[in-house]
Amino acid sequence: MFIIFIALLLQVFAAIASNEFNGRSSVLAEMNVKPEMNTKPGMNTKQGKAKAIICIGCHGVDGNNDNPAYPKLAGQHKIYLIKQLIDFKKGYRKEEHMTAMVEAISYNDIPVIAHYFSSQEIKRLVPVKKNSVKNNSIEKNLILNKGEKLYKYGNTEKSITACASCHGINGRGLASQQYPALAGQHKAYLLKALQSFRFGKRHNDKSRLMRNIALKLTNDDMKLLASYLASLE
């Protein structure tokens, strides 16, 4: 009886998760958002910049900020940005600052803001320095090489899937699957995101994909991946 009860409970949880993501998909469908869509009637950079004024304090005027606590938004896939904003508004993703900020953003403004930031060019404002890793370029290169290996090939012994299989060999992501671009992102933010997935603080990943992977990563693994991705142009 206990086994049957557990099985039924798992089915209930799976159904709830499915409904949540189906709900978000329906919102995207209602907004007529498609991965390949670059423009919408009435959508332009000037309009997007005006709508995005609420975002620039943390994310920068053009989506390139110098505060590693907040992610760069420049060049990020539009459909991914739309999904995250919807998740914040719906409560599927929670973060102290963003949860409050999205209250002032309407659903109609979301694709306009996302279009603006996605059309900007990401800049690596803080380049990797030799003194960032104990002032030793050899050790720095060793860390970046290890990070590259883990990112591109994963770890079969620990059943860690290669990050590149979803985020691309160059870290540019895959818009059609809502996999974000990671290349050139702040190291501190990438590390924070991985830790949030590992400890369940962030749970808006479909089918627990990122959470399951993050559980297999050690702190050192996360630092290697974050260092490597932040170093990419």
List keywords for this structure.
0% strand; mainly alpha; Cytochrome Bc1 Complex, Chain D, domain 2; single chain; 11 helices; 233 residues; 52% helix; globular
Structure commentary:
This protein has about 230 residues and is an all-alpha fold. The chain has 2 domains: about 30-120, Cytochrome Bc1 Complex, Chain D, domain 2, CATH 1.10.760.10; about 130-230, Cytochrome Bc1 Complex, Chain D, domain 2 (Orthogonal Bundle). It has helices spanning about 1-30, 45-50, 55-60, 80-90, 95-100, 110-120, 135-155, 165, 185-200, 210-215, 220-230. Helix 4 (about 80-90) runs antiparallel to helix 6, helix 7 (about 135-155) packs across helix 11 and helix 9 (about 185-200) packs antiparallel against helix 11 (about 220-230).
Helices and strands, with pairings:
Blueprint: H1 2-30, H2 45-51, H3 56-59, H4 78-90, H5 96-101, H6 110-118, H7 137-153, H8 164-167, H9 187-198, H10 209-214, H11 219-231
Helix pairs in contact: 2-6, 4-6, 7-11, 9-11
